[in-house]
């Protein structure tokens, strides 16, 4: 009975390896994902102070899993935690937005070029399937569904590059841009252009044209940067 209470496999001796509580782990992951989506979809805009009591009541959870999730999101750069003052959604400066998009455009360009050399037929087929699903969401005016598949395509291209250092760096930096990338498609012409860029990416992957793929991805990210800067009424910090 004692073993069951401390989470050990019943029937084994006292040196048995502890079994993780899956329910708790699933709750943790669910809370992190839910909060991340609220930030990406601007339900919680940059600068928003997070009220722990209200969030706990809304999600039906205690403060412990919420605080654990906030720590994860702080590491990802999506929120800031202030001692004795709680947490807020991180708000990037105009210079940070400009420079981060510029940096991520280089990461995506490198990943695209490498992917053209290393992608498998199965991976290409998966990207095409995601692309078709993405266009279906666009036709239904489902921006969250479109964005989730859009981001999955970019992640799959990055994975196909077969460079773990590049992939880890990309994931870390791109998390800080996700909310802005989501908002960059709010205008119909920008959304149309983004979808067209994805058509061109698939053509470049099929042709194994790394230089073309790198150029498409670079411009794709810089266009998003310019759209975001225009939405905020800001000019280039380099000007």
UniProtKB/TrEMBL annotation:
InterPro entries (alphabetical): GntR_C, TF_FadR/GntR_C, Tscrpt_reg_HTH_GntR, WH-like_DNA-bd_sf, WH_DNA-bd_sf
CDD domains according to UniProt: WHTH_GntR
Name by which UniProt lists this protein: GntR family transcriptional regulator
Tagged with keyword RNA-binding: no
Highest classification ranks of the organism: Bacteria, Pseudomonadati, Pseudomonadota, Betaproteobacteria, Burkholderiales
Annotated HTH gntR-type domain residues: 25-92
Keyword line: DNA-binding, Transcription, Transcription regulation
GO molecular function, one term: DNA-binding transcription factor activity
Top-rank taxon: Bacteria
């Amino acid at each position: 009975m004692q073993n069951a209470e401390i989470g050990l496999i019943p029937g084994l001796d006292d040196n048995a390896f502890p079994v993780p509580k899956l329910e708790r782990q699933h709750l943790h992951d669910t809370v992190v994902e839910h909060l991340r989506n609220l930030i990406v979809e601007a339900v919680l805009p940059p600068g928003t102070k997070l009220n722990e009591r209200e969030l706990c009541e809304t999600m039906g959870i205690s403060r412990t899993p919420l605080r654990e999730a906030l720590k994860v999101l702080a590491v990802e750069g999506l929120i800031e935690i202030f001692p004795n003052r709680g947490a807020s959604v991180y708000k990037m400066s105009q210079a940070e937005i400009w420079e981060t998009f510029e940096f991520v455009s280089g990461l995506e360009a490198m990943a695209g070029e490498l992917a053209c050399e290393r992608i498998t037929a199965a991976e290409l087929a998966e990207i095409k399937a995601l692309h078709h699903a993405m266009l279906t969401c666009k036709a239904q005016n489902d921006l969250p569904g479109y964005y989730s598949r859009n981001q999955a395509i970019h992640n799959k291209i990055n994975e196909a590059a077969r460079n773990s250092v590049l992939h880890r760096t990309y994931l870390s930096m791109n998390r800080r841009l996700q909310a802005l990338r989501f908002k960059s498609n709010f205008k119909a012409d920008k959304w149309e252009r983004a979808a067209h860029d994805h058509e061109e990416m698939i053509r470049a992957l099929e042709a194994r044209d790394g230089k073309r793929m790198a150029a498409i991805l670079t411009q794709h990210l810089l266009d998003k940067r310019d759209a975001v800067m225009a939405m905020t009424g800001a000019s280039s910090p380099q000007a």
